[in-house]
Design a protein that fits this description.
- The structure is a single chain.
- This protein is α+β, with helices and mostly antiparallel strands.
- The protein has 2 domains: 82 residues, GMP Synthetase, Chain A, domain 3, CATH 3.30.300; 65 residues, SH3 type barrels, CATH 2.30.30.
- The chain is built from 3 helices and 8 strands.
- The protein is globular.
């Protein structure tokens, strides 16, 4: 199994330990997990995809959603954060694919990414750039369109990241003359 490089909350880590092996056993990958409380209820959002190059379809999402709901119901005694009512959202990663595991960053090399930092740096919390390199500590970004006015190459450590995702760029349309 691949490992998460974007830090998970204690609740997310507890959920990951139960859900990731179950998802993996069904031939899928847990891409991202997000747990939050809002207006007195818990919301668990999971991004799931097929392993390999083929993407998950709607029917598979429905099946894995029912399966994971059963897994959560069966383990609710272990998961105190889900002891009351909770909302379960399961979706595919989509075009703006989340980057949470080391392999996600490696596969996204050469693509435009947006990284939300845990803490502001120079009054900036979000960084947009071309993912140039990935190593065990973090990534190196180049500015969009190599615009040095924005920043030179920038090293961002995984430990500094709060969230990250690919910024899908639609191909340019050729205009009719």
């Amino acid at each position: 199994m691949d490992f998460f490089v974007i830090e998970l909350s204690p609740e997310e880590e507890a959920l990951r330990r139960i859900l990731e092996p179950a998802i993996d056993g069904e031939g899928f990958e847990l891409v991202k997990i997000r747990f939050r409380r809002s207006s007195g209820r818990s919301i668990l959002s999971l991004f799931v995809d097929k392993k390999g190059e083929v993407r998950i379809n709607v029917s598979e999402l429905e099946n894995i959603s029912r399966f994971l709901s059963d897994v959560l119901d069966a383990t609710s005694d272990e998961l105190l954060m889900l002891s009351n009512r909770y909302e379960l959202n399961i979706s595919s990663p989509g075009l703006d694919r989340p980057l949470a595991k080391f392999s996600h960053f490696s596969k996204a090399k050469g693509q435009m990414v947006k990284i939300r930092l845990k803490d502001s740096v120079n009054n900036q919390k979000n960084v947009l750039g071309m993912l140039e390199e990935v190593d065990e500590d973090g990534v190196i970004l180049k500015p969009p369109q190599n615009d040095p006015k924005l920043f030179d190459e920038k090293k961002i450590l995984f430990s500094e990241m709060g969230d990250a995702h690919v910024c899908y760029q639609f191909p340019e349309k050729k205009r009719a003359k």
